[in-house]
Amino acid sequence: MSITRKWTTYLLLIAATLVLMFPILYAFSISFMSGAEVLEGKIWPSSFSFENYRDAFEKVPLLHYLINSFAVSIFVMAGQLLVSSLAAFAFVFIKFKGRDAIFFLFISTMMIPWEATMVPNFLTAQKLGWINNYLGLTIPFFALAFGTFLLRQQFKTIPNELYEASQVAGISRFRFFWNVVLPVSKTSLVTLGVYSFLTTWNMYLWPLLVTNTEDVRTVQIGLKQMQTQEISTDWGVVMAAVVVVILPTLLLLFLGQKRLQKGLTQGAIK
Amino acid sequence: MKKILAIVTACLLVILGACSNSTGSSEAQETKKTASGKTEVVFWHAMSGDLEKSLNKIVDEYNKSQDKVEVKPVFQGTYEEAQTKFNTVAGTKDAPAIMQTFEVGTKFMIDSGKIQPVQKFIDQDHYDTSQWEKNISSYYQVDGKQYSMPFNSSTPVLVYNKDAFKKAGLDPENPPKTYDELKAAAKKLTEKQGNKTSQYGFSILNYGWFFEELVASQGGLYVDHENGRKGDAEKAVFNGKEGQNAFNLINDMYKEGTFYNVGQNWDDMRAAFQSKKIAMFLDSSAGIKTLVDNAPFDVGVSYIPVPKEEDRQGVAIGGASLWMSKGISDETSKAAWDFMKYLATPEVQAKWHVESGYFAVNPKAYEQDIVKKEWEKYPQLKVTVDQLRETKPTPATQGALISVFPESRQKVVTGMESLYQGVKPKKALVQAAKETNRALEVANQK
Predict the structure, then answer these.
(1) pLDDT (mean) for A5-19
(2) Which residues of A touch B47 (CB under 8 A)?
(3) Do A230 and B46 touch (CB under 8 A)?
(4) Same domain assignment for residues B89 and B141
(5) Rg (CA), chain A
(6) Which residue(s) pair with B116 in the sheet?
(7) How large is the ipTM?
(8) A226: which chain B residues are within 8 Å (Cβ-Cβ)?
(9) Is the pLDDT of residue A265 over 80?
(10) Which of the residue ranges A247-256, B139-148, B149-158, B243-252 would you say has the lowest mean pLDDT?
(11) Do residue B107 and residue B234 come from a single domain?
């Protein structure tokens, strides 16, 4: 590649990055501003003080919310990985009557918007006594049609002969699943894991519905709690909290980006 | 768009919630007790940010002041979200004892059958409601019955930049009171740099509430049957003379180039004011204090303008009130009522007014020292209170009572926004009224 082409490519990339990153950079900059500075529409704070960050932790129990969010996200991630991979395994390697029909029925649930089933789900959770409980925050999300679909596509790339050979060798299905299928599907598993962690981390309405105490609430509710409706919001503090809240997601994204890309495109091309 | 979506889902959930509720039994729940034997009163609210802090402080003090009741405040998202959730759980053990609902949800709550009017407790207790601010409590009164206890109330006021007034050669102590004065002042305040306007004279947020207030302040009704207070409203009447005055004002000023369209977001509007993009605008009285604190110039506050001074009727309140839910034990309701009474005491109201900027439900609060001190520091706050107290109690200033208020507001906003696209004010209004009528019709059929 000639030097000028390299330059233009990188310049374009940098420009695109700046445009794409602007909201996050601006949020970061606002997190150091006072209320007046934000409302005056300044781009850069006049001085850097961590007052907003201190306020953010004082106004709402942010640390507690962060821990809750972490716990809930990790549980949902683990649950989804387990349930989806087992379901996908059944759909690929175990032959049973009406398998494909059931699979398509299963996949078709992706078409139902989650909001439509929210109230019935809530009533079920309520009857089971899962309100104000980690159970209500995690278990309803364990079965994920998208995850099963993604992993099924991945598992299908494993030759069936391998499975037959393992049967001949007398290896149990679970050992085959654990020792052969999972290791070769690492990329897809990481993709699904990152995906489910991020979606759970960003959930707002469901956690708000099923929790009534600050003990089990998650971080997104905390963010909402800082924004007022009729009185002007202290955006500096909100943005400070936002920066704290998006850090884990950003970290995860940077760490898992390569695999995430690979995994997602893999599912798409199939 | 997101907001509309939220409203639509909220409505949907309300319906779903209403359907599913029939399965729940309506027997009274057991009284919940805390470990120390106090009666637990769960209080759902939508107060976020600094408001939540002030509210929690008040609740803490109440809990410490006696040993029978323990109030547990729980934040439940925005008013809409809290309402949705309340509708889903009302009547079950997860329902709160006290529920905060915004003013436009009043009719809905009355019709829901999931609440008990506080009048019941007022009567039982021989509580004197005359100590409440009449212009506030009357909003939540229907057929002489007090349905909910007024809590956080606000009204719109005209906010202006005093420094800009001086610069334009206007008297900063004599802000415009009528539409004509407003137009003239806005013209002087509008500054141009080349072809671009660097400072606009005036602005109103594209939000239904401000339109309602502009109509109410002229004594105009929003819907028929005395604003829905004498029977269910059937038709919107806000497209009458008063509504046209308001729309014409916006339209005329926009055409003259003295009116700036700030969009639908409260904070955008305030940002435009702070950055001197607009010199005058309408804001909620509750937001005044932070506005004064944040502005790099002198902020003046005045009554909302009317077409002619003799038209002035005052304002209707906005904000929210506290409802007692049904299906809780007698002991819990009594405990909740005790807390409501505590909230209405002058001392608590004084604190609330000073910290939140909302009005005091009990006017005696204004005689408290902390309020006096605060008013010395922020004389603007007194103006907001005066405007409310000078309001003439009529059905117009009592506020409209319809169950489809959020929907109707959306229609009015669409109407306001169509003005900027050159739609004739009358046509925009008629359209909004027509759509409100349709919503009312559907609601009345239920």
Answers:
(1) 93
(2) 228
(3) no
(4) yes
(5) 23
(6) B324
(7) 0.75
(8) 48-49
(9) no
(10) A247-256
(11) no
Are B101 and B81 contacting, i.e. CB atoms less than 8 angstroms apart? no
Q: Which two tokens stand for residue B70?
A: 């323990």
- Locate A44 and state its tokens: 């850069």
Q: Are residues B103 and B244 in the same domain?
A: no
Decide: B239 and B432 in contact? Cβ < 8 Å. Answer: yes
> Which residues of chain B make contact with A228, given a CB cutoff of 8 A?
47-51
Boundary residue ending a domain (B388, B405, B424): B388
Q: Which of B388, B406, B434 is the last residue of a domain?
A: B388
- Collect all residues with Cβ–Cβ distance below 8 Å to A14 and sequence separation of at least 6: none
**How far from chain centre, in Å, is Cα A4?**
40
Q: Is the per-residue pLDDT at B237 higher than 70?
A: yes
Sheet of B278-284, strand order: B191-193, B196-203, B278-284, B156-161, B299-302
- The encoded tokens of residue B436 equal 């409100």
Smallest Cβ–Cβ distance between A232 and the set B92, B154, B291 belongs to B291
Same domain, B160 and B302: yes
Of A115, A212, A224, the CB nearest to B74: A212
Strand partners, B158: B282, B302
Helices and strands (H, E) in chain A, number of each type: 15, 0
Number of domains composing chain B: 2
Whether the per-residue pLDDT at A234 is higher than 90: the answer is no
Alpha helices in B22-128 (DSSP H): 49-65, 79-89, 106-112, 119-125
User: Could you give all domains of chain A from N- to C-terminal order, each with its CATH number?
Assistant: 50-269 (1.10.3720.10)
Q: For residue B23, is pLDDT > 70?
A: no
Of A36, A205, A231, the CB nearest to B287: A231
Judge: B94–A212 Cβ closer than 8 Å, yes or no: yes
- For residue A234, how far is the Cα from the chain centroid? 27
pLDDT in tens, B161-199: 999 999 999 999 999 999 999 999 999 999 988 888 889
Which pLDDT score, from 0 to 100, does residue B17 have?
46
* Average pLDDT estimate for B333-355: 93
Quick check: pTM over 0.80? Answer: yes
Residue that is written with structure tokens 């004892």 in the block: B97
How far, rounded to the nearest angstrom, does the alpha carbon of residue A89 sit from its chain's CA centroid?
A: 23
Q: How far is CA A104 from CA A12, A108, A189, in A?
A: 43, 6, 21
Question: In which band, very low, low, confident or very high, does the pLDDT at B1 lie, cut at 50, 70 and 90?
Answer: very low
From CA B289, how far away is CA B159, in angstroms rounded?
11
Is residue B212 domain-shared with residue B338, that is, in the same domain? no
Alpha-carbon gap, residue B246 to B157, rounded angstroms: 15
**Domain containing residue B200: CATH number:** 3.40.190.10
**Do residue B22 and residue B147 come from a single domain?**
yes
- The answer to whether the Cβ–Cβ distance between B20 and A115 falls below 8 Å is no
pLDDT over 60 (residue B20): no
The closest alpha carbon to A198, from A256, A120, A154, belongs to A256
**Looking at the structure, do residues B351 and B325 belong to the same domain, yes or no?**
yes
What residue type is assigned to position A71 of the chain?
A: A
Q: What pLDDT was estimated at residue B289?
A: 87
Domain containing B197 equals 156-316+396-445
Per-residue burial over B54-66, b if 16 or more Cβ lie within 10 Å, else e, is: bbeebbeebbeee
Average pLDDT over residues B98-125: 91
Q: How many CB atoms lie within 10 A of CB B367?
A: 10
| Residues B16, A213: C-beta atoms closer than 8 Å | no
Q: How far apart are CA B388 and CA B313, in angstroms?
A: 10
On whether both B277 and B174 belong to a single domain, the answer is yes
Cβ-Cβ contacts under 8 Å between A and B: the total is 102
pLDDT value for A256: 76
Residues 6+ apart with CB under 8 A from B248: B425
